[in-house]
Amino acid sequence: MALSYPRPHRPNPARRLAAAVTAALLAAGVLVGCSADDGPQRTVDAFLAGWRSGDLQSVGLIDPLGAKLPSADVVREIKDLSGELAATPPTLTRHGEPKITKDIATTTVRVEWALPGQTSWAYDREVRLAHGDDDQWQVIWEPTVVHEQLTKGDRLALRRDAGARAGVLDNAGKPLVTPRPVVRVGVQPNGVADLKKLVKDLDAAFKAIRPALVPGVDLADLPERVAEAEPGAFVEVVSLREEAYRQIKPRIYDLPGTKFISDKIDLAPTREFARALLGTVDPAQADDLAAHPDRYVVGDLVGHGGLQGRYDERLRGGPGLTVVVERPAEGGKLEPTGTELFRREPQPGQALKTTLDVAVQNAADGALRAEPRRSALVALRVSDGAVLAAANGPGPAGENLAFDAQVPPGSTFKMVSTLGLLDRGAVTLDGPVACPKTFTVDGRSFKNSDNFELGSVPFRTDFAKSCNTAFASLAPKLGGDGLAAAGRTLGLEGQWDLGTDAFTGKVSTGGSPAEQAAASFGQGTTLVSPLAMAGATAAVARGRFEQPKLLIDPAPARPAPVGEQLKPESVAALRTMMRQVVTAGTGSALKDVPGEVYGKTGTAEYDDNPAHTHAWFVGWRGDVAFAVFVEKGGASTASAVPIAERFLRALPTS
After folding, report:
1. Where does the pLDDT of residue 171 fall: very low under 50, low under 70, confident under 90, or very high at 90 and above?
2. Nearest to 421 by CA among 377, 376, 472, 356
3. How many structural domains does the chain have?
């Protein structure tokens, strides 16, 4: 019988190495299934990325009872729960490593929503995961993952509360723009008997309001709006100040279909009160919403033009934001549950304090009220340059001719020419300077208004009577840059910082002898604004230039430096001549105005037709310097001077 023996055991080197590695891992307490590559943190990170991207296909998802959930269903529910915030998914950050208890892992996640107005809403949530039979970690999905107070069907919604808009204040710190009574004029469709006739009657009534509404009331789309509205709706046409409404109430109150609602709106003291400078506050328009969707919503009040537009963010403050929970009611309509998850209180706006003086502004507006042409009046306080009034007559809404106009100054610029001539010793008060009917330079003939001539008279008479030919003959004594140099001593062409746009002038320099002659009496290429001329006039009255000031708070960061003292003897002589303009010259219509008035008239040609002229008057009385401009106003004595008289007579004298 043959015998068999077992073979001797020979250990496998590969198995021996694997066993050693396993033993080492067990000794370290780490299992391959729980490594950084295969553990719950990888699943959490994938879930957070999918939450933001809207793609959870790579993530296992179960409900709290362990049933598997389709990823598309969870993506849809996250979007639904996010509600009004869905368009801007939150930033999601895992904090630390998941904590594992048996087959359940829990990790803390920071949820941070970017809300409108650069507002952040952040909170921590816990995400739970279960270790499945397939050795994979799965996210346990439930609405509380988004927020602890959410349940299935809930929606996050934003509620926005506008902050209290701050006022634009006058120089006494009182609001210029405050709630004032208005009447909202509207139409109720089911009360209209004849829509075509109603539109015609309303249009005629609105056009009868004085001063005229600028811009006018556009009724072109009223028939369409009435046709589209509910029968009992209030289709608003226009909001009128009470005083304007009272003018036309007898004409519109009994028209079939008209309705009227009393209300209050933030308004300046009068309709024309510094309107272009202040701007307006109106409901957000389509272009506002399109340009700044993160800043405005329908119904917001927005500043347009002027200071209200430029400083809108400061004045309007910050809106309040509340995140609330909504839930579908019967019929599926979302209704608030009363649960607030986050709240940021509205921040009131900051006021804008100006140097405007209500009495002076009213006097300026009143002086322009009867003027049918585009016009402007700027008044400054001589002692410190404060802008007391900036009035604009008829013209496009929002056009601030008082600050922005770029027009020739005409003979008001003889004030600047004369200062330059006096500084150079080229003229004296009583030194004779001929005033012929015409004076020719390089073939160009210059003449005086109405072709007058004075002969050889004291220079003060040439100035008072505004003799162009005398100044044309004196132009060579100023030299190529003398006129511009004199203008700069009065602040023209300066870099002013008023907190709003302003044109400070451009003075003719160099050029041909004929150009220099024309520039000596405000023609040629010299351009100014009423504000620039008011500033120059105040500098003569004060004895040195000081930049006009409009804003006290916030104060402009870079105002122009105060100028050097003007030569006392030159200024004294110039003031004497400007007083003589009123007592015995072209401004003599003002000689019986109370107080000592100083000034200079100006008629400025603005094209190649000598009959086409702007009208000017600049001057001062006491501590108030001013400039009056009338576009295409003809002779200054017929337009600008009467405006100056109305202004001075209405101006408080104390």
Report:
1. very high
2. 472
3. 3
Instruction: Please indicate, yes or no, whether residues 646 and 509 belong to a single structural domain of this protein.
Output: yes
Say which amino acid occupies 585: G
- Cβ atoms of 202 and 275 within 8 Å: the answer is no
- Residue 388 belongs to some domain of the structure: yes
Of 267, 290, 313, the position where a domain reaches its end is: 267
203: amino acid identity, one letter? D
Cα atoms found within 13 Å of the Cα of residue 513, Cβ hemisphere only: 12
Measure the N-to-C terminal CA separation of the chain; round to a whole number of Å: 148
Instruction: Please indicate, yes or no, if residue 201 is contained in any of the structural domains.
Output: yes
Give the integer Cα–Cα distance in Å for 598 and 600: 7
Sign of torsion over alpha carbons 252, 253, 258, 263: positive
Angle between helices 468-489 and 414-423 (to 10 degrees): 80
Residues 530 and 623 both lie in one domain: yes
118 and 187, same structural domain?
A: no
Global model pTM greater than 0.70: yes
Token pair recorded at residue 342? 């986050």
The residue out of 234, 267, 300 marking a domain boundary is: 267
Q: Which residue has the tokens 């719950």?
A: 40
Residue 272 domain flag: no
Q: How many CA atoms lie within 13 A of 90 on its CB side?
A: 26
3-state secondary structure of 22: helix
User: What pLDDT, in 10s, does the model give residues 361-380?
Assistant: 999 999 999 899 999 999 99
For residue 379, give every residue at least 6 positions away whose Cβ sits within 8 Å of its Cβ, in sequence order, or none: 360, 364, 387, 388, 389, 534, 624, 625, 626, 647
The encoded tokens of residue 208 equal 């009868």
Query: For residue range 535-592, what is the model confidence (pLDDT) as tens digits?
Result: 999 999 999 999 999 999 999 999 999 999 999 999 999 999 999 999 999 999 999 9
What confidence category does residue 284 fall into, taking pLDDT thresholds of 50, 70 and 90?
A: confident
Q: Which of 403 and 268 is assigned the larger pLDDT?
A: 403
In a domain, 347, yes or no: no
List the structure tokens of 306.
Answer: 């002027």
Single out the residue of 80, 116, 121, 73 nearest to residue 327, CA to CA: 80
CA atoms within 13 A on the CB side of 25: 12
Placement of tokens 């790579």 in the chain: 58
Mark whether 514 and 634 lie in a shared domain.
Answer: yes
Report phi then psi at 14, rounded to 5: -65, -40
Instruction: Residue 409: give its domain's CATH number.
Output: 3.40.710.10
Q: 182 to each of 179, 207, 261, 358, how far by Cα in Å?
A: 9, 18, 8, 21
Q: CB burial class (10 A; 0-12, 13-18, 19+) of residue 440?
A: middle
148 and 205 together in one domain: no
Distances in Å between the alpha carbon of 326 and those of 150, 152, 156, 342, 532?
10, 11, 6, 14, 59
Please indicate, yes or no, whether residues 505 and 618 belong to a single structural domain of this protein.
Answer: yes
CA distances from 287 to 85, 225, 290, 304, 312 (A): 24, 20, 5, 11, 15
Residues 98, 200 within the same domain: no
Give yes or no for residue 26 having a pLDDT over 60. Answer: no
382 near 538, Cβ under 8 Å? yes
Q: Kindly provide the residue ranges of all beta strands, DSSP E only, lying in 196-333, ordered along the sequence.
A: 235-241, 258-267, 280-283, 301-304, 320-328
Residues constituting the chain: 654
- How far are the Cα atoms of 185, 416, 582 from residue 431, in angstroms, in the given order? 67, 18, 21
The residue range of the domain holding 127 is 40-153
Mean pLDDT over each residue of the chain, to the nearest integer:
91
User: What CA–CA distance (Å, rounded) separates 480 from 478?
Assistant: 7
